[in-house]
Design brief:
Elements: E1 34-37, H1 39-45, H2 53-66, E2 70-74, H3 80-92, E3 100-106, H4 109-118, E4 124-132, H5 135-142, H6 146-166, E5 171-179, H7 186-200, E6 208-214, H8 221-234, E7 241-247, H9 254-263, E8 268-271, H10 285-293, H11 306-317, H12 338-353, H13 387-398, H14 404-421, H15 427-437, E9 447-455, E10 461-469, E11 472-478, H16 480-495, E12 500-508, E13 517-524, E14 530-537, H17 540-557
Parallel strand pairs: 1-2, 1-8, 2-3, 3-4, 4-5, 5-6, 6-7, 7-8
Antiparallel strand pairs: 9-10, 10-11, 12-13, 13-14
Helix pairs in contact: 2-11, 3-4, 4-6, 6-7, 7-8, 8-9, 12-13, 13-14, 14-15, 16-17
The structure holds acetyl coenzyme *A and 3-methyl-2-oxobutanoic acid.
């Protein structure tokens, strides 16, 4: 078999929904929905090895920490693992008062009865029952017509109602899913849901949750939004109904569908952390929530330590999270390419300089620090990188802020190293080549001896010390530009090294090394060659002398 030249022979386009006065395209998401985590159910049923009690327990605690208030804890009728976990959880008293657990069952008497038994003793709980309603399932799975399918839902609702009356100590809530909603006729789903309402008699105080799943995502997300908006218009007693979204990601647009569904009037979103779930996964509620956050809307979920959350999720699911997964992947805040690095570095400088917290950052839609990520990984260096890349790494790692012209000078060295090694350059690679280029860790040709610094009455630093070469020593002293001129003059007069200083800068160091000041000097030799010198020292005046000596060493060593 190969891909068809005429796929239309095999596949049909999804029909559009006739909703010319649709409202959702001009709406925005302005508040957090109710969130339902289905990690322990839809996520769990999609795992190669479903979670046992220990992993389920850890996941449950994680969800509490994140702040999820409604948690689908399992499918009690699936077997002892889920039943025991759920009944154990209920009896343990580990369910906080503001958290409601939910279970799922097919709309079948025996399974519903088992499900209620698992929740016996709960203060409050949501019983979620479902049956598929769309044409292919009606025809292929059930071999039933529309009336018979509706009857499955109604019969299930009756069992749910009667079981709730039997276990009257619990404040029961109900959720019904017309499974495969997004591939069914909306009017028919409404008809089935209305029939369920007739049995369960929801009220505005005790509404029923209608979960409208894109069980298999088969259309663009605008169509799902149309279906949700239409359902909301047609369902009777809308104020007694909570509309819940449950999207899957078969076309890769499960998150977009949930977002458009919220714009279309839904109240609640079901999904899994980082999008685990059947086939291509459920809606990733982390991404939906953080998308809201980056629009200035509080999602009411806490992902401040996203890496710890990811670690627990990976452990429980035994599935890795992709390095490019939105918000959490290892590489999602990292730029390797030169122009991105340049823009990000400028962005951080501009953020430091401005006096308000509004995030204006090229290429980074969210501040990684909000999710507990450091800025270190924001820029990494390889052969695709530019000046901004290594300058950032030297600044983060060593506290050095290279002058722009010097970055251009050092750039060739970094580029050659990256090309030679054919791999990422780490901070230690860049620091090593920097030290080598500016003679920082090699035995110095010109040495500084017997030196000290003091503070002048105007607060500037005064330097006094000696330059030494091959046993010959010459004293230099002074401060600021005068000191640099004195060193350059001494090098010329006493040692025959002629350098003209073109540029000089210095700064206090805030990261990395123990030293506290760095100085950079751009010199030109009589032959017109540009040489940069770097000095690092506890004191700024000493750093500046060292910078000139570093240039002199480079000039004399060739
Ligand atoms: C889209 C979703 O994610 S839905 C959730 C799916 N999750 C799970 O299935 C996980 C847990 N499930 C299980 O462990 C098992 O399916 C069990 C134990 C619950 C039931 O197992 P079985 O009794 O073997 O039934 P099975 O699930 O295979 O369903 C087959 C029968 O139920 C019928 N059925 C399927 N879904 C439903 C439903 N929602 N309501 C009523 N009947 C249903 C089928 O038509 C079929 O009937 P048939 O035997 O007359 O042809
Ligand atoms: C049972 C429903 C909610 C479901 O999991 C789905 O349709 O994907």
């Amino acid at each position: 078999m190969t891909m068809l030249k005429t796929p239309g022979d095999k596949y049909r386009p999804f029909p559009l929904i006739n909703l010319p006065d649709r409202q959702w395209p001009s709406r925005a998401i302005t508040q957090a929905p109710r969130w339902l985590s289905t990690d322990l159910r839809d996520g769990n049923q999609a795992l190669i090895d479903p979670m046992g009690a220990e992993k389920k327990s850890r996941f449950f605690d994680l969800l509490l920490k994140v702040g999820v208030k409604e948690i689908e804890v399992g499918f009690p009728a699936s077997g002892a693992t889920d039943f025991d976990f759920i009944s154990g959880l209920v009896r343990s008293g580990r369910i906080p008062d503001d958290v409601t657990v939910q279970i799922l069952t097919q709309s079948r008497r025996d399974l519903i009865e088992t499900s209620f038994a698992s929740l016996e003793g709960a203060k409050t709980a949501i019983v979620h029952f479902y049956n598929a309603v769309s044409p292919v399932w009606r025809k292929v799975v059930f071999g039933m017509d529309m009336a018979e399918i509706k009857q499955i839902a109604v019969d299930g609702a009756k069992v749910v109602r009667d079981q709730a009356a039997r276990y009257s100590g619990t404040d029961w809530r109900f959720e019904y899913s017309p499974e495969t909603f997004s591939t069914a006729e909306v009017e028919y789903s409404v008809e089935v849901c209305a029939a369920v309402m007739d049995v369960l008699q929801p009220t505005p105080d005790k509404p029923i949750i209608f979960n409208l799943p894109a069980t298999v995502e088969c259309a663009t997300p605008n169509i799902y939004a149309d279906q949700i908006e239409l359902f909301g218009r047609l369902i009777p007693n809308r104020d007694s109904v909570v509309i819940s979204l449950h999207t899957h990601n078969d076309r890769g647009t499960g998150i977009a569908a949930a977002e458009l569904g919220l714009m279309a009037g839904a109240d609640r979103v079901e999904g899994c952390l980082f999008g685990n779930g059947e086939r291509t996964g459920n809606c990733d509620i982390v991404t939906v929530a953080l998308n809201m956050y980056t629009q200035g809307v509080d999602p009411e979920l806490d992902f401040s330590d996203i890496d710890a959350i990811a670690k627990t999720v990976e452990y429980c699911n035994q599935l890795p999270i992709h390095p490019r997964h939105p918000y959490v992947g290892e590489l999602v805040y990292t730029s390797f390419s030169g122009s991105h690095q340049d823009a990000i570095k400028k962005g951080f400088t501009a953020m430091e300089a401005k006096n308000d917290p509004v995030w204006e950052m090229p290429y980074l839609p969210i501040d990684p620090a909000d999710l507990g990520r450091s800025y270190e990984a924001v820029i990494r260096v390889n052969s695709q990188s530019g000046k901004g890349g290594f300058a950032w790494v030297l600044e983060q790692d060593q506290g050095l802020k290279l002058p722009k012209k010097m970055q251009a000078h050092f750039s060739n060295r970094v580029q050659s190293l990256a090309d030679d090694l054919g791999r990422e350059l780490f901070a230690e690679d860049i620091w090593a080549v920097f030290q080598k280029t500016y003679k920082l860790n090699t035995p110095q040709h010109f040495q500084l001896v017997d030196y000290e610094e003091s503070k002048a009455t105007d607060g500037t630093r005064l330097f006094a010390g000696k330059i030494e070469l091959d046993g010959r020593e010459r004293s230099v002293s002074g401060r600021g530009n005068g000191l640099i001129s004195s060193v350059v003059g001494t090098l010329n007069d006493a040692f025959g090294v002629s350098l003209e200083v073109k540029d000089y800068s210095e700064h206090a160091m805030t990261a990395g090394s123990d030293a506290r000041a760095a100085a950079y000097v751009e010199c030109v030799t009589p032959q017109g060659k540009t040489i940069w010198g770097v000095g690092i020292d506890e004191d700024v005046a000493t750093a500046s002398v060292r910078a000139v000596l570093s240039a002199a060493n480079a000039a004399t060593e060739g």
